[in-house]
Amino acid sequence: PLFWSQEASALQTRPEIVLQRFDPLHAATAAHFAQLAERYGDPLLVLSLVRSQERRPRESTLRAELAAALHHVNSSLPPGRERIACVQWDFAKHMMRGGGGGERGGGGGGSSRGGSSKSPSSSSK
Predict the structure, then answer these.
(1) What pLDDT digit, counting tens, does each position of 7-30 carry?
(2) Which pick of 8, 15, 16, 30 has the fewest CB atoms within 10 Å?
(3) What is each CA distance from 16 to 23, 24, 60, 67, in whole angstroms?
(4) Three-state DSSP string of the chain
(5) Partners of 91 in the beta sheet?
(6) How much is the pTM?
(7) pLDDT by residue (tens digit) across 34-51?
(8) Half-sphere exposure at residue 42, Cβ-oriented, CA atoms within 13 angstroms
């Protein structure tokens, strides 16, 4: 629901993110979520996997703009309509902390743990 771009360059591995089309009323965002609500019904939940902390703001610019857009859209919803929820989850940060798990074994953080091969769900309660 946001309009942005990046300039591709062989010299710059992480190009700047540029927000396009200034839309102070967030009309495109509102239309996007209205279409989703019509198709799937309420409640709507947004899962944003955009980075929260960076040395130089790139993705975090999009994170802030999405939060502003959702705030505006939610404030303009008619009474009785459920608000759009947003979960901001920094996926890259989670992976760096070893939260990868999955099929690769270990925690995704490069260290292996010795000991039992039991999964947490198979332990006794």
Answers:
(1) 887 787 778 888 887 788 899 999
(2) 8
(3) 20, 22, 11, 20
(4) CCCEEECCCCCCCCCCEEECCCCCCCHHHHHHHHHHHHHHCCCCEEEECCCCCCCCCCHHHHHHHHHHHHHHHHHCCCCCCCCCEEEECCHHHHHHCCCCCHHHCCCCCCCCCCCCCCCHHHCCC
(5) none
(6) 0.67
(7) 999 999 999 999 998 888
(8) 9
Contact criterion met (CB below 8 Å) for 87 and 45? yes
Query: Which structure tokens are listed for 88?
Result: 């901001």
Quickly tell me which residue has 């690769």 as its tokens.
104
Polymer length of the chain: 125
Residue 29: CA count within 13 A, CB half-sphere: 24
Q: Please state, in angstroms and rounded to a whole number, the distance separating the CA atoms of residues 17 and 63.
A: 12
Rg over alpha carbons for the chain, rounded to the nearest Å, is 20
> Cβ–Cβ contacts within 10 Å for residue 56, how many?
7
